[in-house]
Each structure stands twice: as structure tokens, then as C-alpha cells.
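User: Quick sanity check before I run a bigger batch. Here is a single chain. Can you write out its predicted 3D structure?
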Amino acid sequence: MQKQPLTVVKIGGNIIDNPSHLQSFLQLFAQVPGAKILVHGGGKLATRVAEAMGIQQQMVNGRRITNEATLQVVTMVYAGFINKSLVAVLQGQGCQALGLCGADAQTIVSKKRPAVTTPEGTIDYGFVGNVESINSTAIQRWLQQGITPVFSAITATAEGQLLNTNADTVAQSLATALSEHYQTSLVYGFEKPGVLMNVADDTSVIPQINPTLYQQLLLPPAGQTTGSVIFEGMIPKLQNAFEALHRGVQKVIIGHALHLPQLLLGTQGTTLQL
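Assistant: Done. Predicted structure follows.
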């Protein structure tokens, strides 16, 4: 019996911070046919709220150090204001949406990330989670009822501790778990047109990446001994993408969120397949 298609879309980057672009994206997402899930990041609002409250923010390699006060802020912003704002707009577009975080129905159980030892010293990310399991049974029930889950990247441990979690990883984990039951496609939508050979040139989109090309892109550019051909900030997204593919997701597409219909058709963006 052929599996039904499922589209998992993660939205992030500057799209979240631009009201008109976000509105346009949500209109496009609401029109995606069939079963679908939206996962969202938090943009820069959490940082602005934290700073307004006098809570100093610390970032290491693009990742937020989440102390107890920051955890309260990101939970309020991500799982509260942003999540419910997206749900409200989708409802207005005729998309029956349900706003969730990982703590709801234990849909996404995580574990606190251990401290990491680097050449610069030990990094403790604080209340940050690594995904452990997905309650795909509960999510399936909602999808079967025609409901679109909208997940913020706040998860919880089995013991009930809230954790801030990477939204790319949340999307990959959901797509992977549900690929057992659906023919799953995963889309990473942000403000760039795809994976770029030259991060300063939006016309340098790499249309397709397979594992062999991926390994080549990780190598230093010609004449250099360090770094990678592609922008280093793209590497974690590609790592998530290939992990999803190896674990059952049919294809992963990376590209501009406002090109969502074209990304799903494969006419724009970067498509990753094994």
C-alpha cells in the first residue's frame, strides 16, 4: 500500500522577522495540499525581549546559551506569541492549525545537551535539548483529522523540564519519525534561494546535492587549508538534511521560503537526495 505524502516545512531566518514576508509565506503554506506540518524558529524577537528585560544574551557559534531566565523568555516568545500568531494567520487562510510545543502530549521528548569540550574550553549550552523521541501516534491522529500541527522549537524531557531546541533538528526529527507512515518531504525555508556555492552571490545556487558532492563541498576552497567551499553556517542544516534522508525521508529541499510552490516542484532551490 502506497504511503500518503506528508510535507514538513521549517521556516526561519529573516522571514520570521519580516511581517510582510511571513504573511506571504503563510498564504503559500496554507495552500500546500495534503498532510503538512510547520516548524518555526524564533527570529530575533526573543533577543529583543530578553535585552528589554535586562537579560544578557550569549551566543556561541550561532547557538544561544540558554540559562533559566532566557529559557523563560524563549518559551514565552517561541511557544507563545510567535506560535499563536502563526496559527491565527493560518486559520484566517482556511488552514486548520494546531499550535504546539514538544511538551504537548509529549510529542517531542528531549534530553538536556551535555557540555561540549572545544579547543577554546568547555561550553555549557544550559537548558538546550537534543531530541530523543517523537510521539508519532498523536501527530498522526491530528493529521488524519485534517489538522496541521505548528511546532515551536521548545521541547521537554520525560521528567518535565522545558528545553530550547534547534528548530532544524526538530523538523528533521519529525520528518524522520513520520516517514515510517508517510512519504515525507522536508523543506527548509529561509531568506536565501538555496545552498550557494558563493554565499555573496544569490545566483550561485547548487540545484542538486548528493552525498558525494556534499563531501566535496565540505573541503576547503582551492588555495586554502581551512574552511569549506560552502558557507559554514549551512553545514548544520545539511547535516540534518542527510540524516533525514538516511533515516527514511524521501527528499529534502532548501530554499527561499517565498518560493515554496517551486521548491516542492523542484524547479527552484537545492534538492538533496541519496
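The first strand starts at residue 4 and ends at 11.

User: Great, the batch can go ahead then.
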